[in-house]
Amino acid sequence: EVQLVESGGGLVQPGGSLRLSCAASGLTISNYWMSWVRLAPGKGLEWVAIISQDGNEKFYVDSVMGRFTASKDNAKNSLYLQMNSLRAEDTAVYHCARYPYFGATYFDYWGQGNLVTVSS
Amino acid sequence: QSALTQPPSASGSPGQSVTISCTGTSSDVGGYNYVSWYQHHPGKAPKLMIYDVTKRPSGVPDRFSGSKSGNTASLTVSGLQPEDEADYYCSSHAGGHNLAFGGGTKLTVL
């Protein structure tokens, strides 16, 4: 059974940093492109970052470019999102998700998410 | 403001059908046959219900169907069941690595 479990969220002040983790089981993340997607209160879903199978290609939504960094540790079968210079508008539940194959335009497995709250 | 427009709510009685719309532009919904739909029970992992406009993953009941006309995609749930009550989000390829999402529709089974 495929499982993605996020951790590392919490309350942080504006300008602060957090590192989210996504532990995978039932799949080998080195075989897949992966993504971080967030759901802000009262808003829709928004993709945040995408990372390639080997971790060498990364893409970010404009609003987090230069502040967030996605990475993978294929040996630990885990995905990470380093979030710096956090803003109130980054407050959201962050999900990791899997693209089923290169070039797919949808996610076939998601984690249940982890809440990040940016507030003073 | 989300890139794709969905009605904030929809409802129907058990056994009825309900259709949720998702309106975009020619740069996303209208430009590609790559619309997907997700069911989300808050606090749980979103679940893929429809991909590539009309395709259903294995395990998703055939009560769920997708369609598209121009810049608007639709998800129809037939034979509503209590467990269908959830938030539903549409998504569309929007060129390159971009994915556009809708603001979500809360489906209530009366």
Describe it:
The complex is a heterodimer of chains A (120) and B (110). With 120 residues, chain A is mostly beta strands. Chain A has no helices and eleven strands. In chain A, strands 2, 4, 5, 6, 9, 10 and 11 form a seven-stranded mixed β-sheet that branches. In chain A, strands 1-3-8-7 form a four-stranded antiparallel β-sheet, with no helix packed on it. In chain A, a hairpin with a 5-residue loop joins strand 4 and strand 5. Chain A is globular. The model of chain B has no long low-confidence stretch (mean pLDDT 96). In chain B, the strands form two sheets. In chain B, strands 1, 3, 4, 7, 8 and 9 form a six-stranded mixed β-sheet that branches. Chain B starts with 8 loop residues before the first strand and ends with a strand. In chain B, 0% of the residues lie in helices and 44% in strands. In chain B, a hairpin with a 5-residue loop joins strand 7 and strand 8. Chain B is an all-beta fold. Classes of the chains: A mainly beta (120), B mainly beta (110). Chains A and B meet through strand 5 and strand 10 of A and strand 3 and strand 7 of B.
Please describe the topology of this protein.
The complex is a heterodimer of chains A (120) and B (110).
Chain A: E1 3-7, E2 10-12, E3 18-25, E4 34-39, E5 45-51, E6 58-60, E7 68-73, E8 78-83, E9 92-98, E10 109-110, E11 114-118
Parallel strand pairs in A: 2-11
Antiparallel strand pairs in A: 1-3, 3-8, 4-5, 4-9, 5-6, 7-8, 9-10, 9-11
Chain B: E1 9-12, E2 18-23, E3 35-40, E4 47-50, E5 64-69, E6 72-77, E7 86-93, E8 99-101, E9 105-109
Q: What's the short version?
A:
By secondary structure, chain A is mainly β.
Oligomer: heterodimer
State the secondary-structure class of chain B: mainly beta
Strand residue percentage of chain A:
over 45%
Q: Give the termini separation of chain B.
A: 28 Å
Radius of gyration of chain B: 13 Å
**What profile does the largest beta sheet of chain B have?**
6 strands, mixed
